[in-house]
Amino acid sequence: QNYPLYIRSVPTENELKFHYTVHTSLDVVDEKISAMGKAMVDQRDLYLGLLYPTEDYKVHPSSARVAYGYVTNSKVKFVMVVDSSNTALRDNEIRSMFRKLHNSYTDIMCNPFYNPGDRIHSKAFDNMVTSMMMQVC
Fold first, then answer.
1. Predicted TM-score of the model (pTM)
2. Structural domain includes residue 5
3. What is the share, in percent, of the chain residues with pLDDT greater than 70?
4. Which residue of 41, 58, 125, 132 has the fewest CB atoms within a 10 Å radius of its CB?
5. CATH of the domain at 71
6. From edge to edge, which strands make up the β-sheet containing 47-50?
7. Number of domains forming the structure of the chain
8. Is 10 a member of any domain?
9. Contact, 82 vs 89, CB < 8 A?
10. Which residue windows are coiled coil (predicted)?
11. Helix/strand/coil (H/E/C) assignment for every residue in the chain
């Protein structure tokens, strides 16, 4: 339904711009999914890569920030916005980070006390995201 179940940003001073980028990126993810059509169902790896360019934030290779997209087979979307000046991040590292997110999300969904569609308030998930963010920063 395109509302975030979990959102986290560091640094927090431009948090609103990051939220805008994430919400805008969700529309691009939907466009990519519909463009791929039925072929998307057959793929095991649902990594969407770079999403789109903007003036302030880069969601393609040319600005300060880059957003990447990933969608699960159950149509849950993950968007990650990173600093494009971080040359240590390569495509395979981003893929690996999305797989970790997906695995942690699956663990949350297996919790009988979690109601699907509710915001994620899991300490384990938050710790995993924090550790990934520390590796990137």
1. 0.74
2. no
3. 69
4. 41
5. 3.30.450.70
6. 47-50, 65-71, 77-83
7. 1
8. no
9. yes
10. none
11. CCCCCCCCCCCCCCHHHHHHHHHHHHHHHHHHHHHHCCHHHHCCCCEEEECCCCCCCCCCCCCCEEEEEEECCCCCEEEEEEECCCCCCCHHHHHHHHHHHHHHHHHHHCCCCCCCCCCCCCHHHHHHHHHHHHHHC
